[in-house]
Design a protein that fits this description.
With 256 residues, this protein is an alpha/beta fold. The chain contains 10 helices and 9 strands. It starts with 6 loop residues before the first strand and ends with a helix.
Length: 256
């Protein structure tokens, strides 16, 4: 582990990637504030360690997020790491998806990141140290059929994260935007409850610890992006050099 601080904040801590990371940091001696709208899920996360503290908040509410971060600093002390793992992932054809659902995906996955960054980073920048981690996705690099809402939100996360890094690259903050393929968590199960695109389902599926390990390497090496898994790195190259081929494979996989 490369975490050099004492207090970490993880959004989406009520399940999946957020829960796995919170437990790992707590096991290594950190105090971890976990944020989620799911109070029951947070209860399951904190049951494993007295060092994990729950905060129920909807990250789409910027005012509530700012108040929560102020409360965390009052309760636990200065925040040394933030990982924005909160996300939702309903799949489906764009014109068949309720526009309220499509907009909700952008509000949680992208808007939540904006709210968290705006609340968390100014105090970290003032201290000149800390880690800030955002979660994009392989689908934010290689878009595919039936993944329009989710892929669009994760592409937005990538651009925001890249600009955020460059605007603050000499600040002492370590930035990393991680772009994993499918990860074996409850989030992927959420997608399966709608429709499962065949292309990512055929691809690489990682475990949470594999993603965390890659983020830690990213932070150590000072790289703004982490691409866990062999297929992710190949996908970056294919999307850049052969975009037509990428779409042809997607159409062939889905059959339309």
């Amino acid at each position: 582990m490369t975490f050099r601080g004492r207090v970490a904040v993880i959004t989406g801590g009520g399940s999946g990637m957020g829960r796995a990371w919170a437990r790992r940091l707590a096991a290594d001696g950190a105090t971890v504030a976990v944020l989620d709208v799911d109070a029951a899920g947070l209860g399951e996360t904190v049951d494993t360690s007295a060092s994990i503290k729950p905060y129920v908040v909807d990250i789409t509410d910027g005012t509530a997020v700012a108040a929560t971060f102020a409360q965390i600093e009052a309760d636990l002390g200065p925040v040394d790491r933030v990982a924005n793992a909160a996300a939702i992932m309903p799949f489906g054809r764009l014109l068949e998806q309720d526009p309220g659902v499509t907009n909700r995906v952008m509000s949680v996955n992208y808007g939540g990141l904006v709210n968290v960054a705006t609340a968390a980073l100014p105090p970290m920048l003032a201290r000149g140290q800390g880690d800030f981690i955002s979660f994009s996705s392989m689908t934010g690099i290689v878009p595919g059929l039936l993944m329009g809402a989710y892929a669009s939100s994760k592409a937005a996360v990538q651009f925001y994260s890249e600009i955020l890094y460059h605007e603050n690259r000499d600040s002492g903050i370590r930035f990393c935007c991680v772009c994993p393929p499918a990860v074996k968590t409850a989030l992927w199960q959420q997608a399966e409850a709608t429709v499962v695109p065949k292309l990512p389902a055929r691809g690489e599926t990682l475990l949470p610890d594999q993603v965390i390990d890659e983020v830690e390497r990213c932070l150590d090496q000072g790289k703004p992006f982490a691409y866990p898994g062999k297929q992710t790195r190949l996908g970056v190259i294919m999307r850049r050099l052969f975009p037509g081929l990428v779409w042809r494979v997607s159409h062939d996989a889905e059959g339309f």
